[in-house]
Amino acid sequence: MTVTPAVIEEEEPTKKGLSFKFPPEETEMGLIAGIIGAVIVIFTGLPAVIKGVGLLLVLLWGMDSVRKTSKYGLGTGVPSIGVLGTGYGVVGALMGLAVAEYGRVGQLYPAVLVGVIVMGAIGLVSGVFANGEKFIAMKIPRLERAMMELGMAGTLAILLECSILTGSLNFAAVVNNVMNTGLIALLFIFNCFAMLHPYNACLGPDERRERTRICAVEISGLIWVLLGFAMIGLGTSPYGILDGVSMIVFGVIVWVVFFRMFIKACMDECYETVGTGMIKTIE
Amino acid sequence: MEPVLMILIVGYVVIGGLLASLGAHLLPVGGAPAAMGTATGIATGTVQIMLGAVMTGLFTAASVATFSDSLLLVSLSGAVGATVMMCVVMFMANILYAFGCGIVPVSGRVEVDPITKEPQSPYKTPQTDGHGVPNVVYISGTIGGFLAGFAGALMYYALLNYAHFSAGLAAIVALSIFVANAILAAYNIRGTIEGFHDPKFKRLPKALISSFAVSLLCGIVVVLAATILGGAL
Fold first, then answer.
1. Residue B86 lies in a domain
2. Which of A219, A97, A110 minimizes the C-alpha distance to A162?
3. Which chain B residue has its CA at the smallest distance from A173's CA?
4. Residue B21 near residue B230, CB atoms below 8 Å
5. Is residue B17 situated within a structural domain?
6. Which of B187, B189, B193, B209 to mutate against chain A (most A CBs within 10 Å)?
7. Model confidence over B8-52: pLDDT tens digits?
8. Which residue in B has a C-alpha nearest to residue A129's C-alpha?
9. What total of structural domains would you count in chain B?
């Protein structure tokens, strides 16, 4: 006589379409994105697509920081911390661009990293004030570090976008091409979206880091497309119109691939998808 | 750059940051509960309301700054723009709540309206935290919008005329510093606030200290950048 177990243990469903596991941990992600982003932002002569890869990594880093802060519940919604990161990014980019001419070698601008460091310091100070017992007392573990990372990621993202759009980090060129044309407002909002939207859209009890990151990559693809159109309009790239077109093409590819992956992941991981048909109207 | 101008820039940025923090505490923030009509205020977060107010203020301030050099005129025009925006939003929220949901504007935090002395608690639906934008909250929100717009325009004026930034750069940097201060205030508020009569308003000094430190640092960064550029742009 065989005894059937009271509870039949179900096998863990295999998760498909979720092979996006690069790099596995948050600290590693921060280090890799920070270093690669910093290197790419110095070399302004690179083609736009390579800068776009740096932008993607930096935005993923920012998204990670938003995620690990917002997990504890801010009380004011996830968007606030993403907007904070971009706001710091603009101030940091201003500082970086102002000192960019010092120590410049040809197309290399190592001094822009001063802006990143300064904004890391200001982010740390605001994190201490926001988390400190005597001040706002948010009581979120590691908020200081997260705010510092947000400031740095935001600054790197804005600097990379300026570098993509103007082909250099010359202050006058950036002001004429990015600030005075009003493109900075679009960049501001799109940077905010890339940082805050993935976690804002995916948050919940079964939020998973990989799925949230797929959403972030997808938004980065959209930013590439936007930047590509802006580049063609401005016509400032040293590689001519091909630079902008390649940005648009790669952006569309990234968007299509990762949007499909995201939808597939959502479909796979939801409890059950039931087609109920149209709601019947009473007539 | 002359030292007087440096002090003026840092001073105006710090004043702007402090006013932004104060303005954020005065605005009626309802958050998600207000979207369901179960809390007083406008149905969104602090940051969104503050961004909307200061953007409108910067539009009016930038228009006036094209033909006027007066500090007071530019700042006040920003303040008026933000006030008009806030008043329209609060008015439309009231219309939607009253005629759409069928609930009366009533405060959830006080028994009697501190200004008009109207009773509040008999009209409040049980288990809710007030509805819509009642009189005292409307007045508080108007003052908050005025201060927020004034703060944004003050920073814009300092960056435009003392640091000699171009109009676009001055606007986006003023917006960024403003946003950082507004978010620190939002963390202090934690969710919803009605205005100066709300018990949470007593937490204001903590946000002001934080805002002071952050805007001081941001002001120093702006001065450094402007000095290095030497008024080039």
1. yes
2. A97
3. B233
4. no
5. yes
6. B187
7. 999 999 999 999 999 988 988 888 888 888 888 888 888 888 888
8. B210
9. 1
